[in-house]
Amino acid sequence: MVDRDAVEQLFAQYGWPMDTREFAVLNEVFAKDASMTVSITGGDTHGPVQGRDEIYEFVSSIVSQQTDQRRHVITNHRIVSDDGGTATVTANLTLVVITDGVIEVKSSGVYSCEVIQEDGALRFKSMHLTLDVPF
Predict the structure, then answer these.
(1) Reduced to 3 states, what is the DSSP secondary structure of residue 22?
(2) Is residue 120 helix, strand or coil?
(3) Distances, alpha carbon 80 to alpha carbons 12, 85, 129, in Å
(4) 3-state secondary structure string, 75-97?
(5) Is residue 99 within 8 Å of 62, Cβ to Cβ?
(6) Cα separation of 39 and 33, whole Å?
(7) pLDDT computed for residue 32 by the predictor
(8) Which segments of the chain have a pLDDT < 50?
């Protein structure tokens, strides 16, 4: 059974490198053979990106190009199902961006993820982020 607090901590660990560019943390949150897809409603789909190393490269290359300060606010964590080996979880994203001292909500979206235990830690096996507008 997946603990809700552990799920919230996993999402917090995922969001942290997006905001601080401490990309090494990504190696702690994704399973070795994880997949990640980002879909923009009415727009492009990126991925699926396969494998922890490829996810690291994908995320770090996008975030490294951003010149503003981003804050990922991830809330409403919900364990949809849990079979004891894999849990399906969802959460909401509110993406806050600060540019030249001006703060705005840049996007919002929904994460749909599978989480597993791997090497004694809870990790994302798959992550699909559907954004309401481009980021």
Answers:
(1) coil
(2) coil
(3) 19, 14, 16
(4) EEEEEEEECCCEEEEEEEEEEEE
(5) no
(6) 20
(7) 97
(8) none
| φ, ψ dihedrals at 68, nearest 5° | -95, 175
CA distance 28 to 42: 32
Closest among 93, 131, 92, 127 to 113, alpha carbons compared? 127
- The predicted pLDDT at position 84 comes to 82
Decide: helix, strand or coil at residue 2: coil
Q: The tokens 């490829």 sit on which residue? A: 54
Domains of the chain plus CATH, in order, are 4-131 (3.10.450.50)
Query: CA-CA distance, 95 to 97, in Å (whole number)?
Result: 7
Cα gap 96→115, rounded to integer Å: 25
Sheet of strand 102-118: strand arrangement: 45-50, 30-40, 121-131, 102-118, 86-99, 69-82
User: What's the predicted TM-score (pTM) here?
Assistant: 0.93
> By the 8 A CB rule, do 28 and 119 touch?
no
CB 37 within 8 A of CB 54: no
The residue written with tokens 């990640």 in the block is 36
- Return d(Cα 73, Cα 54) in angstroms, integer: 24
